[in-house]
Amino acid sequence: MLRLLCILMLALPVHAQTLRIAAASDLASCIEDLNAGFKQSQPNTEFKVSLGSSGNFYTQIAAGGPFDVFLSADQSYPKQLAASGAAELSTLKPYAIGRLALWTMQPNVVLDLTRLGDVGIKRIAIANPDHAPYGQAARAAMQQAGVWDTVSPKLVLGNNIVQAVQFVQTGNADVGLVAYSLLKSPALSGVGRSLLLPAQSHSPLIQAAIVTRYGKSNPLAASYVDFLQSNAARSTLQRCGFDLPERH
Predict the structure, then answer these.
(1) 126 is in an annotated binding site
(2) Which domains does the chain have, with CATH numbers?
(3) Which amino acid positions bind molybdate, per UniProt (predicted)?
(4) pTM for this structure?
(5) What is the mean pLDDT of each run of 10 residues along the chain (248 residues)?
(6) Does 54 appear as a known binding residue?
């Protein structure tokens, strides 16, 4: 009887566990690879991934939005969530450093921040700096180059960095300040011309992950944040165009 019971228990289906991730748009090119790497040790995980602006996710999570893990494009939003009790401070860990690039599909555009005021450049795409870390970095880079006041009327603001890329790709902007990681994706690799901006052109885009209050009861959430510190995850992120922070 005991042997039969053991056989029946082994035959029971293993139910998948769901992990809900709110991920910054600059991870669009590698989130599937990261998730596949996590499944090597947690094969029964099912992912529900939402990609978007970190600022918009901050607002949703602060209001109790149903996400287990927040992969932000900066550290500020996760820290604010932790300070308000909407996320678990003890789980906060930097996982990547984003890089900004100038990108164009136009053959005559000079890829130089100081030349963005040229009369041939009519529209410049960036993510909205009001809520997108890449937009804030783009603004800082143009301010440092001394062209912000001149080019502000030319700006076309994307809701997130993916939309800024789409503006350039579709010809609705002549040039964009976009996430280098998106240009490394298979869909855009080798498309147009790009210039990786010096890291010193803006404050570092140190990207942090955190377990939300909603995800505190999901054991997969903390495991996923820890996984991002692994050699496998860091290799994926580096291949996707990110720099790497020190491990925490």
Answers:
(1) no
(2) 18-97+205-240 (3.40.190.10), 100-196 (3.40.190.10)
(3) 54, 161
(4) 0.89
(5) 46 69 95 97 96 95 97 97 98 98 96 96 97 95 97 96 96 97 90 95 96 97 98 97 90
(6) yes
